[in-house]
Structure prediction request, 423 residues.
Amino acid sequence: MSTKVVIGAQWGDEGKGKTIDILAGRADVVVRTSGGNNAGHTLMVDGVTYKLHVMPSGILYPDTVNIIGCGVVIDPKVLLEEIDGFESKGISTKNLKIDARAHVIMPYHIELDGLSEAARGKGDIGTTKKGIGPCYTDKAERSGIRMCDLIDAEIFPEKVRENLKIKNKMIELVYGGTPLDPEKVIEEYTAYADRLRPYVCDTVPLLHKAMDEDKEVLFEGAQGILLDIDLGTYPYVTSSHPISGGVCVGSGVGPKHIDECIGILKGYTTRVGNGPFPTELNDETGEQIRQKGFEFGTTTGRPRRTGWFDAVIAKYAVRTSSLTSVVFNKIDPLGGLDKIKICVAYNKNGEITTDFPPTLTELAQCEPVYEEMDGWNEDISDIKEFDKLPLAAQKYILRVEELIGCKISSIGVGPGRDQNIER
Ligand code: GDP
Ligand code: IMO
Ligand code: MG
Prediction:
């Protein structure tokens, strides 16, 4: 048996989808464990692009079981759109399994996400407005609606009516929004329930049976470690646990079942939404990286903020997610830059540190300490062996590996399934 966790080791969008699609070729089971359709995972196979939001990234392999675990929050409408999208392309979703415990994103969650962001004004988080925060809030508050409730024709209407008594007051009286009609919500979501019912089950025994039978299991993380609600740049975070530990609570396995933790990094840093970003480049170089890396949100289309690679963040990821190896994606967009900088440490009021600080106040006192390296001009997108890379690219990768203290096992040189250098 082998179980591998794949997580984002920066602020998300590191190329997790691409890496999971590659690794899923050898996996029997792929499990999404946290987040919802705030995620956007892109797969590019034979020139066709697939953008997945809730669907696990093993879906292109007909025999792979794809599980949506209990830690995921599900917008039924979005999931059905994804199911229909794949089925219409002749890609079967018969092996999709949705855990009965997973929480449902309801229309009032989406409404409240937008209203609360607007109320925060300039201090907004920059959420995806997909209802993620309000859904996880209800889960923690224990008023959430789960997939098992959605598919229960008696329980679901009651829960919607009960919840909307309070949610409508919040929408109307706190935020000045328009209340929702419970009966319309019930009608719309009952139709979604009817279609999703065949996929809903208890995925915990299924997963454990697979592990008992020595199957290959791949846990697909979403977001990135700095968006973790506890270990990220709070409050500019999401509402779940993108660190590797989140995989356990989001699927129902204990840490002893995890063999490998693979962190996905990219050759530079990006962030969508607001919050601190020490190595951010608000200049032509940042724009060049954005254009070459096509750094625009998969979910919201927003331009991603770009900056130099930050080894302090990557080292924090190695520690907080017990990474056993790293996939270093998106090296190719750095091509054409004369010089490339790496943030090797922070200067915090004169003290040099490689520890990522716990508070935004301390982070604001940190200035990146840069090391400058030579760039390269060659097109590297078809290279398959490390030794064939331009020397400057090799040096850059090896220096990053040294700084983060974790083996770089694979390097991404393009979005395609075969655009990788294995080491
Ligand atoms: P995820 O959220 O971590 O799955 O990443 P996204 O899919 O949101 O964003 C990563 C983007 O980079 C996608 O458009 C991928 O197709 C693309 N990508 C992944 N790896 C590479 C790579 O090595 N080089 C290039 N140029 N693009 C890549
Ligand atoms: P993948 O899986 C990048 C960010 C949002 C915002 C913050 C909170 O594709 O890497 P939320 O809607 O979750 O309440 O927004 O988190 N965010 C992501 N940024 N990639 C993601 O997912 C993200 N999911 C959420 O932009 O800053
Ligand atoms: Mg993404």
